[in-house]
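User: what does the whole thing look like in 3D?
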Amino acid sequence: MYLAALIACAISGILILVRAILGKTTFDRILAVNTLGTIIVIGISLHGFYMERPEFLDIAIVYALINFIGTIAVLKLFSTGSLGEIKK
Amino acid sequence: MDLIKDIITGICFFIGSLSIIVGACGLIKFPDVFSRIHAAGMIDTGGTAFFLLGMIIQTGWSLITVKLLLIGIFIFFTSPVSSHVTANLARQKKIIPFGRKIGKLL
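Assistant: Here's the predicted 3D structure for the full assembly of 194 residues, as structure tokens:
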């Protein structure tokens, strides 16, 4: 059961990676990488349940946090050209 | 009782797997950024919700349930935020939606 779900996650991840490589604009790539991060969070949780070691859920929580912050940071860098203004 | 748990978990995993594969196919086949955000939202809500629901049913009440609920709540709150920021920035950078003329952006 967990193995079938992991295989579905792998197929979906490969399809999303194709979009991230072929994407026309930058926003396609950013959206695909963000979605791939969500798939990886699900995959880490399922792998922890499959190996009967549920401590992997901590890694999944940290991956979800870093995925969100990384997406927002890349979008801000692409939008304004810097990661924060230094006021003088 | 164990068999009922396994059956409900299997149904949840099946719906989740269908949801993420349909979302990934949509992410490839759709013609535009603004319509691809729709498919990405399908993965972020349907797939995550059903997979986490299946794992919650499988474990019962323990600390693992709290961690799974934390992951679910966090993804539910951050996925619309990142989708909205992506769409807003794509509109600011003058990406033309599929089927619109160049002069009429909005």
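In plain terms: Residues 3 and 27 of chain B are 36 Å apart (CA to CA). Chain B touches chain A through 45 residues (CB under 8 Å).
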